[in-house]
Amino acid sequence: MSRLVRPVLGGRQRSPSPLDRQQLSNRARASPRAGQGAAVEAKEAGDVQTLPLPGPLEPDCVVRPQGSAVQHTFTAMHGEAVACLSGACAVMCYTDKQDVLSGSRMRQLSCCALSPDSHFLACGEVPSQDGPRPLSTQILVFNVRDLSVKPLRGQARGTKLVSWSKQAEKTFLLSVSFPDSDNKDGDHLVLWSWPQGERLASAVCLSGVAHISFAPETLAFSTATTHEVKVWSVVPPMSSRGRGASTCWQLTNRPVAADFGVKAARTWSVAETAVASIAWGAAAWLYVLSHTGRLFAKSITDHGASPKC
To answer: Contact at 8 Å (CB) between 234 and 187?
Structure first.
């Protein structure tokens, strides 16, 4: 079962011209309720539509990392704290102090994610080379309470994405590698156990994975490139020793056809169906957002996701 969630303002939206933006700004300042959710009128294609504007929010604090901040290089932590990456360090910023975490090799970090219990911060390293020879990379898992670190080895081409999951009494960490130089082998997925740090399973998917997300209630996760979404089932080893029973963890996948309700004949259909982000909701629903704001929902029960651990 799937559904298309349409935005409030239907149809294709054009970008406002500089004159339109200036007129909207002037009307917002002139409104007596500006700053308190005031509304302005936007005239488009001959129709007048009311667009609610949120009031301004004052930031509690400002943190400036030493580098370009992207989606996967910072994460909220327990309480009033945030962790962000700065070169080869992970900086945990609290209201009254900062803790700087780093590995022994001081390699540049590329991504981070906080464990479900808020006790561990996983950080992936950027791939690097010593001349023509690629250097080994690690995933650094920091204990945010005592600031210790445990490296996970086995992601040879560096790690661009990490994600955590907790099912019953088991905690898992998923990592995605950078593609190789010629972009032929695809991205490598590795599933780790925690706190054991054991490499449970691995798989290869198409290059260009930009988002990963675990389902909150089942042993499943999703990956997304610009034009492809897949749901992966985490299959535990079979306890029985019958014929055909597997004694290893496995990762199996099925593609998700995200129907954004766009006709292929439209000249802008490629842009409208490009995937911008994915997220899981309650009752095993997967939500896929396109670059133009169209939201598609799919129940993974239709895809045979594995049950709870």
So the answer is: no
Question: pLDDT above 70 covers what percent of the chain?
Answer: 65
Residues shown for the chain: 309
61 CB-near residues (< 8 Å, 6+ apart): 93, 95
Do 175 and 157 form a contact (C-beta atoms < 8 A)?
Answer: no
The answer to whether the CB of 73 falls within 8 A of the CB of 110 is yes
pLDDT digits (tens, 9 = 90+) for 208-248: 899 999 998 888 999 999 888 999 999 998 754 555 556 78
Taking only Cα atoms into account, the Rg of the chain, rounded to an integer number of angstroms, comes to 23
- Alpha-carbon gap, residue 160 to 123, rounded angstroms: 9
DSSP 246-273: --S-EEEEEEE----S--TTSTTHHHHT
pTM of model > 0.90: no
Report CA dihedral (186, 284, 282, 69) to the nearest 10 degrees. Answer: 0
